[in-house]
Each structure stands twice: as structure tokens, then as C-alpha cells.
From TrEMBL:
Its EC number is 3.1.3.5. This is HAD-superfamily hydrolase. Keywords: Hydrolase. The keyword Transmembrane does not apply. PANTHER family: 5'-NUCLEOTIDASE, PHOSPHOGLYCOLATE PHOSPHATASE. The keyword 4Fe-4S does not apply. One of its GO terms (cellular component) is cytosol. One of its GO terms (molecular function) is protein tyrosine kinase activity. InterPro entries: HAD-like_hydrolase_sf, HAD-like_sf, HAD-SF_hydro_IA, HAD_2, HAD_sf, PGP-like_dom2. It comes from the Bacteria. It is an enzyme of class 3 (hydrolase).
Length: 220
């Protein structure tokens, strides 16, 4: 079956309430800026260091470290989107090779997946293993593909499921099309650049199932 790569924040889990709260606190305390929580919805998905650089941090690496200290205290309050765990489980049981491909710290990714008993459904879990400043979404996708291939999966036809332009561009670097989920906070301009769009979990499950068995062909 064809492999499917799935983003974490904003795609599989609803990280917005926790992430926006921690971003608001971090930016207020470290950068002296005050914005309403809704302002931070635009930063769900993009790499943290890119976000803090955009917000004017002179040392995005250090601000990211402080953000993560705060985030790790509350990250298990994050919950999966309704019905997404069931979709992942059904796809895995059907034999679809699944991989997590996220810019989130890999250790924290594993903690969240373990907390919701989702780790078992993924053949590969790829994130940022060392909080590296220049580790991009394209690097994450490449790592996920390489590890899938090492496990014997044919990665010549793969699909990315995400919520932002970084997923589209990161997967596109390796010729992989992306489906954006309709519950994303992405602007329409980002949806316009995606190969496909799924506005409901039922639509997403049908699309992924058809792709996995070759019934649906996705190409850039």
C-alpha cells in the first residue's frame, strides 16, 4: 500500500488552545508584546523559531527554548481532533504505512502520541530530534521517507496530510502532494496551493483509503 505522512499540530491534534496560550505568555514575558490569543492562531503549524523571528526575537533559539519549557508543563492538555484517532487506527489496521511528520520536538511528539495511545499506529514518528535551528519541514519529510523505506515500504508514491503551507512546501520538495485539512487555520491562499482538501474527517478517511490502495492517484 502507498504510505501516508501525517502532520501533528493542527492536523491530528487540536493544539490551538494550548499553543496560543503558551505563545501569548512567552511573547508577553520575553518580548514585551501583548496580543489577543486569536492573533496566535496564524502560528499553529509553522516552525517555532520562524515564528519568534517574525515576532522580532533577536535570539529565536533561546526564546524557543523558553517557550518549550512552558509548553511541556501543559502539553498533555492538548487533545486529538474528534474521530481522528479512530481514522488512524482503521488505516493502520488495514495495513496502510503511516508516519508522523512534524516540526515539533520528537520527544514531545512521542509523549503526546503515547498519552493518547496513538504511537502503535505509526510505523515511523519523525520530528525535530534536537531542536535544530535550521531543521525544516522538508528535512522532517525526508527523514520520514527514509525511515519508511528502511522498514521495507515503497515510498515512490506517498501523500502528505497537513494544515499549513509548510507541509505543502516541505513535502513538495520531494515531489509529494499534500492534502490540507479543512479544520486548518490556514488562509485560502494556502489551500489554493494544496493538491487536495478534506473538509471533514469522513472525507479525509475516504481520500486516504483510496490513495493507499491506488484507487486515487495524487501527483504534483
Amino acid at each position: 500500500m502507498n504510505p501516508i505522512l501525517i502532520d501533528l499540530d493542527g492536523t491530528l491534534i487540536d493544539s490551538a488552545p494550548v499553543v496560543t496560550s503558551v505563545l501569548q505568555e512567552t511573547v508577553r514575558e520575553e518580548l514585551g508584546q501583548e496580543h489577543p490569543r486569536d492573533y496566535y492562531l496564524q502560528f499553529i503549524g509553522p516552525p517555532l523559531m520562524e515564528t519568534f523571528a517574525f515576532l522580532g526575537a533577536t535570539d529565536p533559539v533561546e526564546i524557543t527554548r523558553r517557550y518549550r519549557e512552558r509548553y511541556e508543563r501543559v502539553m498533555l492538555d492538548t487533545k486529538p481532533f474528534p474521530h481522528m484517532p479512530e481514522i488512524v487506527e482503521r488505516l493502520a489496521r488495514a495495513g496502510v504505512p503511516l508516519a508522523i511528520a512534524t516540526s515539533k520536538n520528537e520527544r514531545n511528539t512521542l509523549r503526546i502520541l503515547d498519552h493518547y495511545n496513538l504511537t502503535k499506529d505509526f510505523r515511523v514518528i519523525s520530528g525535530d530530534p534536537e531542536n535544530r535551528p535550521n531543521y525544516t519541514k522538508a528535512d522532517v519529510v525526508r527523514d520520514a521517507l527514509d525511515r519508511l523505506a528502511e522498514s521495507g515500504v515503497d515510498t515512490s508514491s506517498a501523500l502528505m496530510v497537513g494544515d499549513r503551507i509548510h507541509d505543502i512546501e516541505g513535502a513538495g520538495r520531494w515531489g509529494i502532494p499534500t492534502v490540507l485539512v479543512g479544520w486548518s487555520h490556514a488562509p485560502q491562499s494556502e489551500f489554493d496551493q494544496a493538491w487536495g482538501r478534506a473538509d471533514s474527517v469522513a472525507e479525509l478517511e475516504q481520500m486516504l483509503g483510496d490513495f493507499a490502495i491506488g484507487k486515487l492517484v495524487a501527483k504534483l
